[in-house]
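We emphasize that the prediction below concerns an isolated chain of 434 residues; any contacts that depend on oligomerization or on bound cofactors are therefore not represented. The input was used exactly as deposited, without trimming of termini.
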Amino acid sequence: MTVSDNSQTKDGATEATKPPHFTMTEDEIIAKFPTRLRGYDLYRKMDSPRHIVAPMVDQSELAWRMLSRNYGADLCYTPMFHAKFFGDENPKYRNEHWQTNETDRPVFVQFCANDPDVLLKAAQCIGKDADAVDLNLGCPQHIARRGHYGSYLMEDWDLISRLIRKLHENLEIPVTAKIRVYPEVEKTVAYAKMVEAAGAQIITVHGRLREQKGHKTGLAEWAKIKAVKDAVSVPVFANGNILYFEDIQRCIDETGVDGVMSAETNLYNPALFSGKILSTWQMAEEYLRICDSVPTNASYIRGHLFKLFRYSLPIHVDLRKRLAEARSMDEYWQFVRDIKARLTKDAEEAETKFDPDNYETNEFGYRVYPHWICQPALRFEHDKEHSQSKRLLNEAQIKKDAGSKIADSSSKAGEGPEECVVENDCKRQKVSAA
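Result of the prediction step, given as a token string:
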């Protein structure tokens, strides 16, 4: 099955059109796994999740998932795990990376892979401790290109189909997939239908091309996500262009999707799904309290604190150095106490008291919040042709000419980094209060 293949198999396909790796009919699969949920039955069993935390390397770990659930996340994905290492007989990688507890449901475990047997072996290690296993077909980073996984499988539809089908025919829990789009709507739709036909019970569509990363991140194309939603019969989640709480419903209205996934914006504002506008130190304190009870890799904690305080650390430069050198929970707590004292003072001395219901916007249409408030990471200083800035400026001018006060936030983008894995990251250490 190649990219140009127009004869993707659907349920009920004839034997003549069925790919050879489809070794079982759908009726046979249902008989083999009579209690395994499919499509909308799976979605409804999870209480129809609308707010979803994306799989993010080193960032969607158990402690962060717990924090996100406190603020409206209905479903969380683990970081992307490398199937080859996860299924290895030596459990070190698996033990270092896979954490869950009784509060961590529903949860999807995501893998990258390029070998169906290796993927199945890794997925079987999960047992029933997750609600589904997700295949990463979206990672655009160079390490994915070298390892031949993620979005770099998009030229090999046959392999993608075999990976999904292997799990669909052999795994106790459902298989899902997260994909990126092609330049052409028609190819994107055909791709999604192939993924569905192979057995994916939920499809997440990141509405960006593989080339849209780094300073070329740009806007996700909701129109392509809508086209996929209209074409498949399984639930669809949208990923991309979510900066503010209001963008969630706007995305649902424009695409018809069943849920909205946030990646980068969740890291800078873990209260995104609640609609609350909170201080960065409040989020940091709550996260560290969770880490006191859930041993967490020190590098994960440090990474989260850098993102939460992204806009304050350039102002309090000495604290940035301290955070970079911190390795223990005591040091992280002391950092948060010290920066909280400074930010509280900044807030008290501000000429204008912050009113979350009365904000200004900048020339690009972004909301202007003080640096101690959780807010999305914005990009408008790079590559004007590919970043959101050029389009935002055009939209803002149109709105201005029409007498509108602010540009429609549906034109904003923000979810940049895609999930990816570093093969030697199992060396990172966990830290705890003890």
